[in-house]
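Office hours follow-up: a student asked to see two folded examples consecutively, so here they are.
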Amino acid sequence: MKNRIKGHLFLWLLPLLFPFISYAQIYSTGSGHIWFFSETPLENIEAHNYQAACALNMNSGELVCKVTMDRFEFEKDLILWMTAFLYASVGFSQDLMEIIEETDSVPAKQFVYSTFASSRLASGHTVESPGKQELVLIISHRFWRLDDGIYDMFGLDNATIRIGFDYGITDRFSAGLGRNTYNKTYDGYLKYRIIQQATGIKGMPFSLTYLTSASVNSLRWDEERKENLDFAHRVSYIHQALMATKLNRIFSLQFMPGFVHKNLVEKKSDPNDMFLLGLGGKIRLTKILSLNVEYYYFVNRPDNERFMHPLAIGFDIVTGGHVFQLLFSNSQPWFESGFLTETNGQWRNGDIYFGFHIQRTFSLGSKPDWQKL
């Protein structure tokens, strides 16, 4: 008996949809979908390939495709011999084949790491977090204003200190706790990376991290406050969306919109809720040294000198498991609700506070299998 085989080849190309590469009237893709189906007396054969590299010349109508056998997904293992059919030529053009080779050489996705040197840009957070089972010890000092002069050794005689720990629960989810001498404040945060920047055909141009933190003022209250206030009035909250992109090995940018709520404010005219827009960046100067800048603008800031827009300039020095940060800012508190809502210094008046971070990372688990870019 003579067997008859009916074969149908369906090629679905979406050259006008992302991702695509356009060269004049030539469109190419590295994620073409080729579907093969054949009906035989023995059994039906079906296979799909979602990573075909194809190029289409719109002027001549010429079409060239390149596929690899190991990327085909068969419904049944019995028909692997049919993959030899895929080497049949659809048409050849030297120019189109060069475009296909270029498209096929681009990986589907490769994550971008080390957008910033650490989880802190200056006073505030970055999109970076500790890796899974990594513990980060952070010791922070911020001295008094530099304009105090030689009598107070340019602010060195007065300092606020924060000691905290950050821990990576997963590679995307982290948490932290800290204690500040400023108003004897305890603070904590939760941080989750929603999107990670990646290169390649299926890349993503930015990273997105959600940050929520809370702080508790533990100063002893006088008798009047004890009678009229309770624990809830000691608490402040902040929510931020951290969006960052690593433009190249030298430049990184971060946009930081957020919302701050304080259960207790100093005056009745002060808002309990404040909305902010933050912008920051990093310039890599050498292999271990980078310059950081961080600025926050409050949309509904009260018009008085008790509320200034925070501005910080600093340097990161990376040495193995340590990160040293030297900072100059018009704000004294380290924790989020503090430096965001209690900044009262002005750069033009010399109200500049010098400070530094020391960060030491301890790996409590196995090392990740990826390499940082």
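And the second, which I mentioned at the end of office hours:
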Amino acid sequence: MNDFKIFCPTYKRAGAVITHKYLPDIKYVVAESEAEAYEKTGVPMWVVPDSAQGNLCRIRNYILDNADTDKILLLDDDLRKFGRWKNGKQWGKLKLTKDRRWTQK
């Protein structure tokens, strides 16, 4: 089967994350010291050691090395749009609406 998991690294943005509103199957990757703040918001999360944080490359590598699958999609925690490019030109843009619909722009 082609199942994959979606992870969103996040840091000190408990009240600002929105990707889960459009893609409910994601998990925010949260440092242990911030877990309580994210728990209060009710977002899906994977709590990792504080040592995994530090910069985006470090946390992404931690995800790749420790996730329970090798099929991973990493996204921003405040995702609102997707775009498609071909030969250096944008030829499609999808925008996410609050009611979880995709609209083409």
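Two things to take away from it. Strands lie at 5-9, 26-31, 45-48, 72-74, 81-86, 89-96, 102-104. The longest helix spans residues 56-66.
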